[in-house]
Amino acid sequence: MEKPRILFVEQAITPYLKETHMSKIGRFLPQGIQERGKEIRTFMPRFGSINERRNQLHEVIRLSGMNLIINETDHPLIIKVASIQQARMQIYFIDNEDFFHRKFTIKDKSGKFYEDNDERTIFFSRGVIETVKKLGWGPDIIHCQGWMSALVPLYIKRAYKDNPLFSDSKVVYSLYGDDFKETFRDTFEKKLRLPGITPKDLKYYKEPNYVNITKAAIDYADAIIVASEKVNPELLEYLEEKKKPILNHPSVENYVEPYNAFFDSLLGKK
Q1: Which of 25, 26, 112, 228 is geometrically suited to a Cys-Cys bond with 10, CB 3.0 to 4.6 A?
Q2: What is the pTM of this model?
Q3: What CATH homologous superfamily does 5-266 map to?
Q4: pLDDT tens, 19-35?
């Protein structure tokens, strides 16, 4: 019998980025799920603050070389990989010189939100999906953490819904207190479009702020994890209106078993 396949789409993983509630789960949840008999793949952005030499990142030539078109501009997709030896786990990094070769992650040195964060989240989300396609690895569950992964549910359920690798995938989106106050540029709705995405699908992207892109992620996800005590109240209220499986588990301790049981329930296991 084949092992269930879990794809982790992470905005932050320690030790590559500083240790936070989200980055700790990004690091230890995939390992725990793998140790419980599931096959995993884990992706994150290759932010410029990640030291490639210290962390032994290297490019995967067979996966690199694709171009993603965003706003009529070609952006080369580079895939790098590193291993966390003690966990027997590989991390795939989505890289691009224009989007990720800068010293900071979401905001610049002065604390200003990067203007191109809208295109960075499109590139990251599409880059993960296209790389998984290239791997020919169909996930049973796709677990998304951090707003930079918030377009993955939309893309999987609309643009890639007819691809046999993803047609049966369950998407789980984790909610954190990772709000930002800024709004993406007003061209965001146009930039994220792909065949299969209808005007009706774009209602929350007309005013693309944190709350709205997260509401859209909730809509297109199959299940939600409330992973922090600091989740925006408007999103919790919105979630109450939805009849979706929800795991409330804001603790950073002893979370692997509840998450694993939650994944099993979505896969129809008891």
Answers
A1: 26
A2: 0.96
A3: Glycogen Phosphorylase B; (3.40.50.2000)
A4: 999 999 999 999 999 99
